[in-house]
Every structure is written in C-alpha cells, then in structure tokens.
Amino acid sequence: MLGGEADSLRHDRDLLGPVPVPSGAYYGVHALRARANFPGLGGPVHPQLIRAMAEVKRAGIRASLEEGRLDRGRAWALDRAAAEVATGHHGESFIVDALQGGAGTSSHLNLNEVLANRACELLGSRPGDYRLVHPVDHAGLDQSTNDVFPTALRVAAMRLAHRVVESLAGLAAALGEKEIEFAGVLKPARTELQAAVPVSLGREFGAFARVTGRDRDRVAAAAGWLGRVNLGGTAVGTGLGAAPGHRRRSLAALCSLTGLPLAGVEDPVDGTQNVDAFLELSSSLKLAAADLAKIAQDLRLLSCPGFGEIELPPLQAGSSIMPGKVNPVMTEMMAQVAYQVIGADLAVTLGAQAGQLELNAMLPLIAHNLLGALDLMAAGVEAFTDRCVRGIRADAGRCAQLLRASRDDLQATLAAAHIGYAAASRMAGSDQTV
User: Cβ distance 413 to 197 under 8 Å?
Assistant: First the structure.
C-alpha cells in the first residue's frame, strides 16, 4: 500500500538529482519521473505483464541467491515482495503509463523500486532505506530491462493466448452444433448476394466452424513460439553483467514458478533485438479477427428482414424511438472487436519494424496492443458464442419460401451442365452469353 501523510516526504535521488516522494510509497524517483514524462498516454500497464515481470524477478533473485551474489536475508525479502506483486498486491504502486520511452525501462525500474521498498519494510526498516535494499544493486541484480521485459511479455502473452485458443475452440464447437441442428434446412446459397445453388443452412454453419477451427490452430501455433526467452541475456544478449550460469539458473526457476514450457532462445542477441514472435501472434489474431468479422456480418445479414433465414437471440431494446425494435447487437459487437484487434495488429507491426540494431525501443507499444488484443479477442468471442451463436434458430419455412422463389434460377444452373450455358441462360429468361 501507499503509506505516509501528504506532508511526510522522503527524498529519493537519481543521476538528475533528488525528488520528493511520499515517505511510505513503494514507488520512487524513477517511477515519478516517468509518470511526469508519460502522463496517461495509454493507460496502466497490463496486470498480466506486471505479474509476469514479478515472476521473472523472483527467478532472478533465486538464481542470484544460488550463485552467492545475493545474501539470504535480502533474497528472502525481495522474493516475498515479488510474490506479493505476482498475486495482485500493491497494484496502486505501479504508476508508470503503458506507453513509455526506454523499451520498458521505466516499468522495470518502477517494479524494482516497489520490490526494494517493500523488502525494506519486511526487514524492519522503512521505504527509501536503499542502503539496506537497493532498487538496482539488489532488486535488479544480474538483470536488465532488455531481458526482463521481453521475457515477461512472452509469459503474459502465452497465458492470455491460451484463453483466446479456448474461446475460439468453444465458438467452433458451438458453430459445429448448429451445423448438425440445421443440416436438414435447405435454402438458396448466394454468390454476389444473388441466388446460386441449393445448400443446407447446416453447410453454411459448418464452413463457419471450419475457419474458426483453423484460426484456433493458428493462434495456438503462434503462441508456441513465445516459449523461447532471452532471460539472462542482460542488455544485448551477451550476458554481460550477470554471473556465469545465471541464464540457466534463472530460466529453471522461471519454469518452476510459472509452470510454462519455457526454454532459452538459441541466440540471445537475436532474441533481444528481434520481436517476430510477437508479430506472428498478433498476425494470427488479425487473421482470426477478419474471419470473425465476416461470420458476424453474415449472421447479421441472414437475420435481416430481407433474408430472415435465421433468428438471433433478442437481447435488448434496439431503439429509443421505435418501440419493439430489436437490433443484432452481438454481431455488431463482434465485428467491432474484430476491427479493434486488426487496428492493434497494425500498431504491433509498426512497432516491430521500428527496432534498431540490438534493441526494439517500441516494446511498450507492442506489449500494450498485443496484450490488449488478446484480452479483447477472448472476451469478445466468449460473449459472442454464449449470447449469440448458441441461441440462433433457423426459420425453415422462410428458407423453403426463398428456395421456391429462386427455383427458376436454380433449375437453370442445374440444367447448364446438360444443355449448355447459352440454352440455360435462355431458360432463365436471359439470352446473354458471356
């Protein structure tokens, strides 16, 4: 928690000089300068990223203790502080905006300050007693922002991607159930919105289910690439500044803490300067979003009065002036979610290509948009499945009526294989030959 009275201050110092800080605050000078420099640009850092960063810190603390570079008392206090952060405590102490310069350095230093100041309390002192526990010398020992932040982003994205995969699997299953339910409902298929050949409504929903299943597989495959982390590479991947063996020890500790199948990237320099794994995951979300938007718009179209082949669940009043009007709100929601995810992918793409030499300074942008898109996609798909798809009903009578109305065109199409295109065109009331 943030302690201290408003007029009770301590003075934290960095290379630019002292800054007054509320005496009981867990944040410090670095976080305060960053808050002033990046005032509410993108909102708070994603809580799953903070959780993952705290887990990465715990892994580093345990490795440094094993190496004899961190004494047992400080290691115990820092590990406990990081465990508290990882379980959702002290969230009010993370005051740095998600969109920040410095490749995530401000968020990393904010976390270091929280851990160090909380550790001071646990050891019987007060926040700001940096001779006891220092934010960099102790909380940041053997680590750099450039291996902590991207490793944590990979961990956070893996967790959130799992929910997306599960949500897409649920949607595919729900669409598959409708495929079976509507298998006997015949209707006219349409190309260019014009009647084409007969098809069952079930076949239409089956196609929706197949593409959703492929999207699930693509997201799962892309998420699999996130398991290769550059932890222990420090600033540029060479490991300079960390103890020998720190990379191996910290990675083993992180696997134990997270339960995720993590491994060291083959070349930590490559793993530090390149962010293609994040871009691939974002691209898979974009593909899924495009397909979901198409499905949502198809359902909206099939339910409109001109078609009326399906009935969407009535969920809420659709007008403030037209009583009784009900809108296809869930299909519209799903389309908007999809468009937002597609927009986030563009930001991730621009951030990925903006990396320079050994580091990508746009990692905060990538993190903000990628994690936000994962959250949004999962929540949107779950709501769409539960509140829309599962409650869709077929209007078999309307489908049969439309099939009868387009009988001449359909018969001409079927006859073309036997009497030729020109004769079939005349049969359909047209003498055009193309």
Answer: yes
Chain centroid to Cα 319, Å, comes to 33
Long-range contacts of 404-408 (CB under 8 A, 24+ apart): 406/188, 406/195
**CA 344, CA 431: separation in Å to the nearest integer?**
50
Q: Which of 319, 320, 425, 430 is catalytic?
A: 319
DSSP-derived letter for residue 125 is S
23 in catalytic set: no
- Tell me, yes or no, if the pTM score tops 0.85: yes
The DSSP annotation for 18-85 comes to EEEEETB-S--HHHHHHHHHS-SSS-BPPHHHHHHHHHHHHHHHHHHHHTTSS-HHHHHHHHHHHHHH
**CB 276 within 8 Å of CB 282:** no
| 2 found inside a domain | no
Let me know whether 161 and 101 are in one domain. no
Kindly report, residue by residue over 372-403, the tens digit of the pLDDT.
Answer: 999 999 999 999 999 999 999 999 999 999 99
**pLDDT > 70 fraction of the chain, expressed in percent and rounded:** 95
The last residue of one of the domains, among 88, 106, 141, is: 141
Q: Whole-number mean pLDDT of the chain?
A: 93
Length of the chain in terms of residues written: 434
What pLDDT score was predicted for residue 410? Answer: 67
The domain tally of the chain equals 3
